[in-house]
Write a structure and sequence with these properties.
The chain is of the alpha/beta class. Helix content is 44%, strand content 12%.
Length: 345
């Protein structure tokens, strides 16, 4: 049995088999077969529904100095901001009125937002919107911090592992950060009962097919509820400013592989895909994705949450953004739904 049919049959491969599968990504027949199976599985578990997440980028301060990131601590040109608790609640109110039933609070690792401050924000959101899901994406914290935020009402947590290869991880991050610590956080979050999301950049500097195979093996072991992947896009104020962006086609291929590997997973068609390709998000849905994440952040702050260059939708009001996405989703035969959109894992 070849690796494509083995993945389709068993939903898992060895590292060597994943490397072999990744070597076929430019073969249209293989990519087509994987996309066909990925779409079949996403329709089996999620029908033609696409879930929306209202993204609130509430702080661009970050204590970390990741080499690829525009809001890293060491970027002197970043114009910093923090939303107040009231501004965050206003974003939630607007999102609720637009039909969002999941809010995603995303930010840099900002020491200002202590456990107590974050727990207070989580409690207020859940008091006002008890039927809504609340996702946090605020980086590495202690087990005790994760426990406190879970008890305050947080439902989900997104923490991209970025790469599962230790040497590659160290080439992208300063020495005080470690892949082991990142993985430990993900397992702790699962233990505490969060719906957990991991993920990685496609085409980041120094990445090999062997690195990507390790990412797939790690996801196979972790069994996350969500996986966020997108092509690497360089930022002009980093050491990787002149690097090539990641491949849209390889990202789409990997979306199909991940859907087959984890049939019930929540899989976003990311903003980064839409940034590199005008139809990137539609293509993501056609490759097996079933989530989109429009921006609820205040328009005045959006351009400042500047992880990479040329990010789309930074000038649109949330209502415009949602309307545009709804039409895009319908153009490929799916429809946006008003639902929390929990994982079927």
């Amino acid at each position: 049995m070849d690796v494509v049919e083995e993945l389709i049959k068993n939903h898992r491969l060895t590292q060597n088999q994943y490397e072999k599968l990744l070597g076929l990504w430019q073969d249209p027949q293989t990519a087509g077969r994987l996309a066909q199976e990925a779409v079949r599985l996403r329709k089996e578990y999620y029908g033609d529904q696409v879930y929306t997440r209202g993204l609130i980028e509430f702080t661009n301060y970050c204590k970390n100095d990741c080499y690829y990131c525009g809001i890293r601590r060491g970027n002197p040109h970043a114009v910093r901001y923090r939303l107040t608790e009231e501004e965050i609640l206003e974003c939630c109110q607007q999102g609720h009125e637009l039909g969002f039933r999941t809010f995603v609070l995303q930010g840099g690792e900002d020491p200002y937002f202590t456990d107590e401050r974050m727990a207070q924000i989580v409690r207020r959101i859940k008091q006002e919107y008890p039927e809504h899901a609340l996702t946090l994406s605020i980086g590495e914290r202690s087990y005790e911090s994760y426990r406190l935020l879970r008890e305050a009402g947080a439902d989900r947590y997104l923490l991209r592992h970025e790469t599962a290869n230790d040497a590659h991880y160290h080439s992208l991050h300063p020495k005080e950060m470690s892949l082991d610590a990142r993985k430990q956080c993900l397992y702790q979050l699962k233990e505490l009962g969060y719906q957990v999301g991991a993920g990685f950049m496609v085409g980041s500097p120094g990445q090999t097919m062997a690195c990507l195979a390790e990412d797939l093996v790690f996801l196979q072991e972790l069994q996350p509820h969500m996986v966020g992947i997108g092509p690497f896009i360089p930022h002009h104020d980093t050491i990787y400013a002149s690097e090539k962006p990641g491949s849209v086609e390889l990202t789409l291929y990997l979306l199909s592989v991940i859907r087959i590997m984890l049939p019930r997973v929540l899989l976003p068609a990311t903003t980064a895909l839409g940034t590199l390709d005008p139809r990137g998000r539609e293509k993501g849905l056609e490759a097996g994705a079933n989530v989109v994440m429009p921006n609820l952040s205040p328009v005045k702050n959006r351009k400042l949450y500047d992880l990479y260059d040329n990010k789309i939708c930074t000038g649109e009001e949330a209502a415009e953004c949602r309307g545009c996405l709804s039409r895009r989703v319908e153009s490929v035969g799916y429809h946006l739904v008003v639902a929390r959109g929990d994982s079927r894992q």
